[in-house]
User: Fold this.
Amino acid sequence: MKLLSVNVGRLAAVEYTDAPSGATGIDKRPVEGPVRIAAPGPKGSGGSGLAGDVVADLRHHGGDDQAVYAFAREDLDGWERELGRPLADGAFGENLTTSGLDVSGARIGERWRIGRDVVLEVTSSRIPCRTFAGHLGEKGWVRRFTQGGAPGAYLRVIEPGEVRAGDAIEVLHRPDHEVTVAFQFRAATTERALLPRLLAAGAALHPEAAASARQYVEKYADKTPGSSPAGDSA
Assistant:
């Protein structure tokens, strides 16, 4: 398992973003040499965990609990075949493009060491948005990406340091629960009856995802066990 590339984005004005600034940093490109990773601060004020990387919409992106976004090269290769076009490392706006690591199969709370110093913890899945769709320029992209079920992972910084392309990735800790990134993604998007099961991930789960799960539990606490609102499926 290794880090294929470290990708950062510059601020660019576009028409397809909902960011108040009318700009986005989603167009991320591989950089050479070491890049420092550190906790950026709370969501709303803290942006990316990578030095030199830009987060334009601080309402919905960035902050300590989604400081870094990782995506597997193997999943990019799958989309290359489906879309019939090349996708460079960073094409999905990911900070880290990995090889040999099942990113969407990682469990919430799983910890990775990258290189010598950096330790990251998996917190949640990426949820596709209008900016992502506009960046890819593919018809029905949000629906297609959601159906693909391999969203990539957001991570928080446990131990800061520098990373560079070629660094080894080691799984230091894998929790004993069922809540993978892909499972959490399904619960947040197409199978909301799964939401209560996310709470098994404990404090490692992104606070917003945990709040959504608790709200669901409270809303349907008086229903028959196993029931779910119309349109949900387990």
Summary: The longest helix spans residues 207-219. The longest strand covers residues 2-9. The radius of gyration is 17 Å.
